Amino acid sequence: MELFTQIIINSLISGTQVLLLATGLFLVYSVTRIMHVGLGAVAMILAYIVYSLLQTDLNIFMLFILFLTAALILTILTYLLLRGFINREQNLLGLLMSLTIGVFFESILSIIFGPEGRFINLFETKSYNFSEITVTNVGILTLALGICLFATGLFILRSTPEGRKLRATSSNKNLAIVLGIKTQKVIFITFFLATAIAGLVGVLKGMYTAVTPLAGLNLIIMSFIALIVGGPNDYRGTIVASYILVLIPELLISLSIDSFSLSASWKMVFVFVIATILLTLKPQGLFYSVTRNT
Amino acid sequence: MSYFLVTLLAFFNTLINCSPLQVLVSVGGIFFLGFPVMAKVSAYTVAILEKSDFNPLVAMLIAILLTIIIAIGFYYLYLRVSNDSFAVIGLAAMLAVEALIISWDDLTNGLLGIPGIPRPEIANSIPSLLFVTILFALIVLVFEWLFFQTKYGRALRAMKENNISVEALGINPNKIILGIMITMAVVFSFSTSLYLWRVQFLAPSFAGLHYLILLLTIAIMAHRPKVTLLILSTVFVFYIPELLRFFPLPSAILGYSRLVIYSLLLIVLLINLSPKFITSSRKI
Amino acid sequence: MFNIKQYIAIATIATIGLSACDAPVDNSQIQIDSVSDSGNQMQEYKIGVILSLTGDAGAFGVETQRVLDYEIEKINQQYKDKNVQFKLIYEDGQCDGARAVDALNKLTDFDNVDFILGGLCSSESLGIAPLLESKNVVALSGWSSNPELEGASENFFSLSYSDNGVAFGISDYMSNFETAALISEQNDYNAAIQKIVLEQLKEDGVEIVADEEFPKGSTDLRNIISKVKSQNPDVVLLNPNPGITTESLAKQIKETGDWDTNFVTQYAWNTETVLNETSDYFEGKLVQIDAPNLSSPELKSYMDDIIATKGELTNLGAYYTASSLDALNIMTKLIAENDANVEAVKNALNTQTFSGWITDKIEFNGNTFVQNVGTASYEIVNNEMKLIES
């Protein structure tokens, strides 16, 4: 029972990281229809920037400002490179450009920092043990930040003018333009939000485990799969899919024992099987249902 | 001169692989990411059978049959799911097969790979292997060119614009896709065998994420149904990193520097590409 | 002036043209223009080096290159009076057999080298070994340790102790307990140790309660640790690759709090970061099985010099620093003595005894792996690994 609870807790934390990055992907996809897979590399760049800044004696406020500044610069760079493909609705080429940007960023990181991994020590990691169950302060922070971000995000999307503009742009860009919404501005702000969230994921990952220059691609793959399985047009699906794709394989592997014991390398096999089953049963997304229009 | 021959071999191998991918991904607009699965399964089949003293050509034939079965499996998945979902299934399949190969070490020798793969008589030296590879590449390219001239090639282009109209004209687009995927299976099996006979070593990392990105890049850059564009794309993407070998870069950053320069060139090229690439949504 | 397609055409024609060019001469000795102090022409010998400079073992490869670059400067200084110089040509094997084969082809066919230092990873060496005889090339690796390399080629030698030695040492220690668990990274080095330890423990009647593997480079190992801990093993083999994986594993085990078990590991644990951050947890609980005689002050001082001039050696450790130095020194010595004759160098490797940092008696005696290198047990005392038993 304790092992089961521990796996659930660990998987919730990992699943929240996957979901946060999938949220960035979702935001960009919803307004541009482009899968911005370069977000993985962006997450790593921002994590390494935070790592470098932590080597100086900056206070947390300055660190945050500089983090946002770096996120803004990266946003401008990626947005300018992807803008042409967004306007021409060239989704595949946009994906390729995003991938190439990711490769470029990862290579730059490898040159500057070398291939070694880094731990981000924003504060001292403490672990709390309850019987045989262990939780770290970083894990709790990840869960708390995840919940806050989702709640804030849902509130902004549903109850603020900016949120309505984003939903309008996502739903029908041309109509949004006709209605006077500055869609380019909305897209840029969405890019910035996605970049900042990706950076947050990078920092959390560096605190919870470690970051390496090439970790971005592996990070984004799970989020990409979660987004598609959940349905790229329904955020609820993304939330559920993120946790299902992390939790079920981890449970199957961790609770398998004796001659049926499976190693952690089987994780992607289970992810594939689950993704295939869900996509076959619910190809439009987990929460998609056919409705009759009157 | 041997080094030149070996890189030429690798180039034609890449060109062969990209041909069916250009047809399916670029022209057909079907974002299929499962082709590394075909390459991996085919490679391990050939390697395991050859190490069990099967004739190399027989091993290749068995690999072709097995890969065709996988292609048919992917085809049925394609019928059931949307384009984006199909992409994800392909990607997840690739990662799953990679994990399976490493874990199933009784059969695949796991992480250590399979060394010392023998060459067949007809290709037991680099020059003869190059001759066979170039011959096969010519066959594939001619076949692709002919395909684009037929009604099926035109139907494939039309499918990307409007699937329903194609069906209304009495052409079954799904059968075309099935044909392309089976052809892809055959082509990948053959080219994988050629690769194994060149390197004579099969690592578990073969046909991984970087392989997928490389081939996809070439296929997407060759975004129109022209064989010459495919050749140009392959030359550009394949040979630019080779050109960078001659730059006096420090060894420690050599590999990454090449990637930086290569990705920058790719970015410039993508920005300059003429946009005639319209995707359409496919209703299921 | 030109459009994009014409630029592409020009660039690619230039590339193909350049790659088709042969090297200026057809042997591994070239006469360079510089004249030595004595007025004679300097003779330069080229040595190809296949290392993992990028990819998962990139950190290891980059540090190895630092050691080799440091040492080759000293060697060239020593040989200057004899009008002999050595040049290292690096190629990236990417810890992959197929890439290593491409690297070998490039070094032998384009750079015309007859002598190779490498591969670094066992998978690189496994890839190149079958090709060495047909190419008439001798390879000496300071680092590849997989037992499958034994007898893989008459032209391949390794200064690394075979994983057999470490694995038998580990299994001897673990056989003192009733139940055991293994946590291994999926890497060729770790897989070899895991396989031998499992076989030996089964023979010795030790119950294996968990045998967990994780993908190469993974850093989130909490679930694996929890799973193993729940099985209550008497002893746990910690078998990661050195670097970030070991650091992650060490930290995450420490997070779990009290764990009434014994730990055993290989050389991966002996890095500054791991010892500084987790020694308080593992002191008294962890035993490391590694090569002996490598805590000498002379080697430590030498390593400090390398670190000061070339950069950190946090992943490489003492043994592989020593083996890197010895590999280069032995190779350059034999090339100079035998005037770069491949057969003579190969025979010398098979028959002679060399003195180096690893041991005073480096001998192959017709084997692939260096003989006379046993293992020793170490434990953590005051943030350092101290020898218990050799």
Q: Care to describe what's here?
A:
With 294 residues, chain A is mainly α. Chain A has a single domain, classed as ABC transporter involved in vitamin B12 uptake, BtuC (Orthogonal Bundle). Helices cover 73% and strands 3% of the residues of chain A. Chain A has helices at residues 2-32, 39-54, 60-87, 91-113, 137-159, 161-171, 173-178, 183-208, 215-230, 235-254, 267-281; strands at 127-130, 133-136. Chain A has a two-stranded antiparallel sheet. In chain A, β1 (127-130) and β2 form a beta hairpin. The model of chain B is unreliable at 276-284 (pLDDT under 50). With 284 residues, chain B is mainly alpha-helical. The longest helix of chain B has 27 residues, at 173-199. Chain B has a two-stranded antiparallel sheet. The N and C termini of chain B lie far apart (53 Å). Chain B has helices at 2-27, 35-51, 56-80, 83-103, 105-108, 126-149, 151-161, 163-168, 173-199, 209-221, 227-243, 251-272, and strands spanning 114-115, 201-202. Chain C is an alpha/beta fold and 390 residues long. Chain C is globular and about 70 Å long. The termini of chain C are far apart. Classes of the chains: A mainly alpha (294), B mainly alpha (284), C alpha/beta (390). The interface between A and B is large, with 43 and 47 residues.
The general outline of chain A is: globular
- Give the strand tally of chain B: 2
CATH topology of chain B: ABC transporter involved in vitamin B12 uptake, BtuC
Strand order of the largest sheet of chain A: 1-2
Structural class by sheet pairing and helices of chain B: mainly alpha
- The overall average pLDDT of chain B, rounded, is 84
Task: Tally the structural domains of chain A.
Answer: 1
Number of helices of chain B: 12
- Regions with little confidence, pLDDT below 50 for 5+ residues of chain A: none
Oligomer: heterotrimer
How many E-type strands of chain A? Answer: 2
What is the rounded Rg of chain B? 19 Å
- What radius of gyration of chain A results from the CA coordinates? 20 Å
How would you write the strand order of the largest sheet of chain B? 1-2
Helix content of chain B: over 70%
Q: How much of the polypeptide of chain A forms β-strand, as a percent range? A: under 5%
Second CATH tier, the architecture of chain A: Orthogonal Bundle
State the end-to-end CA separation of chain B.
Answer: 53 Å
Q: What is the 3D form of chain B?
A: globular
